[in-house]
Amino acid sequence: MKTASRLLAVCAGLFALALTQSASAAEFSGPQRDEIGAIVREYLIAHPEVLQEAMAELEKRSTAAEAEKHKAAVKQHAETIFSSKRQVTLGNPKGDVTLVEFFDYNCGYCKRAMEDMMALMKDPNLKVVLKEFPVLGPGSVEAAQVAVAVRMQDPTGKKYLAFHQKLLGGRGQADKSHAMAAAKDAGLDMARLEKDMASSEVRDTLQESFKLAEALGMNGTPSYVIGNDVVIGAVGLEVLQEKVNNARCGKATC
User: From CA 241, how far away is CA 224, in angstroms rounded?
Assistant: First the structure.
């Protein structure tokens, strides 16, 4: 359906172009317009490769426009994206490149992407920021609420990372009970955890993540901000590494 819509758009554009080649295009009669349309149709049938070329150019321009839109949004919200007091910071807090991941504990792709994050964290100059983005239902929200409370209790991120790996790597639906079990295994103070979960900080943290995701055009998890780039989806370690390298030295391999 998406391809068909693009074909229609391209055809309409070509038809409009044919009409506007003449200064008196607005004065064409109905039969004349029909004749021009027939000429365009015959040309496209004889040269279907034109449609492929036009679609490729349309895709190229659309991708470039989307990238510029993302860069503008990253610049506008940079302070909250990279340095919010409500985020989890792992790796080198003074690293020369920052990778920000928006995730959901019930996202299967996020589970696989966790391995990519751990591999990237071997880079001694990489700062990693985690932002809870619970979009997959009530269980995800409950798990994220526990996660925020874990972060409130563990500013170093060490226990948070243990909790994160335990919950995201576990089986079954992530919810409050599973999250609390993971927190206990990670050595958190459970009484304080319950208290912190009832605080406004939990609500404010999740609201901040959702507002940022909306501003950045994110509609799923995992999603990333790396340098000035917004990356949607589990693109894999190789692509993420290339994005890190581009942010660091301007090319895919530093």
Answer: 12
